[in-house]
């Protein structure tokens, strides 16, 4: 376990009992933690650690089953609490072999609780596993941070974790789609092949020569690719959705003005841009105030 451990911290304005319940009760914990599909406590005797099993999906219908135990809790005189964990799995297809970590709950004078975790783990598959972990470990940190913000919003705003995840992943699926749409239409019919329809639509709207229209479409194609990349890197997605609610009607109108015969084509500019405009409106509705991993502190103070 020589690699840097994963650390996540977030302030949550909630009562200690409520935060303890949603993080220490399996039925509540599995609702907000993206890393786990299910958590099941096993029977325990007095004075023994609490053993549990967990299951997490890895995609393609596959899941990882693991074991864990709470090796101790500590209640400090200032009201702070600590819960230590030991976890792992015997399944060979799991990158994680075994790990340890803890959760801490520090009450603050302003009524918030600094909720934090730090954990580390051993990997399988030798050098190949270490290479995969260069990508997997940041993803685990991101999933932990996103889950912490979902728990915070659940306790502070009363928004169910399932609803938050629907909005979060809907926003990102729509964003990836627009990245593909803008990048493809900027790259393929403009920069790579310069489709004749692109030239005719430009000269039909603007008083340009064919050579000037080619130059303009090269510029527009480059801008479309840049705008497509914004969908992946710009965090305030609702700004982009609002912009598209203006852009798509203009694009559809300009294409029809250039040549009304386009209206008879299958998947013509009018219906295509109308569909993208409606999808932008739907994206705007779901993209406001979504949970984000950026709410969390990722380095210990």
Automatic annotation (TrEMBL):
<feature type="transmembrane region" description="Helical">
    <location>
        <begin position="240"/>
        <end position="258"/>
    </location>
</feature>
<feature type="transmembrane region" description="Helical">
    <location>
        <begin position="270"/>
        <end position="287"/>
    </location>
</feature>
<keyword id="KW-0812">Transmembrane</keyword>
<keyword id="KW-0472">Membrane</keyword>
<dbReference type="Pfam" id="PF13781">
    <property type="entry name" value="DoxX_3"/>
</dbReference>
<keyword id="KW-1133">Transmembrane helix</keyword>
<feature type="transmembrane region" description="Helical">
    <location>
        <begin position="214"/>
        <end position="233"/>
    </location>
</feature>
<protein>
    <submittedName>
        <fullName>DoxX-like family protein</fullName>
    </submittedName>
</protein>
<dbReference type="InterPro" id="IPR025695">
    <property type="entry name" value="DoxX-like"/>
</dbReference>
<feature type="transmembrane region" description="Helical">
    <location>
        <begin position="165"/>
        <end position="184"/>
    </location>
</feature>
